[in-house]
Amino acid sequence: MSEKNGLKDFSPHTQDILAIEILRSIGVIGSLKSGDIKTALSAASRRWAALPQGKGLPGRYKQPYATYEAFSLPYKNYGGTID
Fold it and tell me: Which of 69, 80, 68 lies closest to 36, judged by CA?
């Protein structure tokens, strides 16, 4: 994916770009933009093991994952609203 996007490092900026591309590839950008976090996390957590499945739910796999609160707070801080 990095070659396709012309990325040459793994800096925080590059990681953000890759994250957006992953979210785009699984079709959840529209859900995120509209505030439908429940749908977005349900779908994204299948591909991205570090995400929770939703509010009050764990990650799907046996590895560390971000809590819903850790995910939703920056989203809100950047102006996102959650249904």
Answer: 80
Residue 37: what are its φ and ψ, rounded to 5°? Answer: -65, -35
| Residue at token pair 């959840």 | 28
- Threshold 0.85, pTM exceeds: no
3-state secondary structure of 48: coil
- Share of the chain residues as helix, strand and coil, in percent rounded to the nearest 5: 55, 0, 45
Look up residue 58 and give its two tokens: 């764990």
**Burial call 37-63: b when 16+ CB within 10 Å, e when fewer:** bbbbbbbbbeebeebbbbeeeebbeee
> For 16-71, what is each residue's pLDDT tens digit?
888 899 999 999 999 988 889 889 999 999 998 889 999 988 888 888 998 999 88
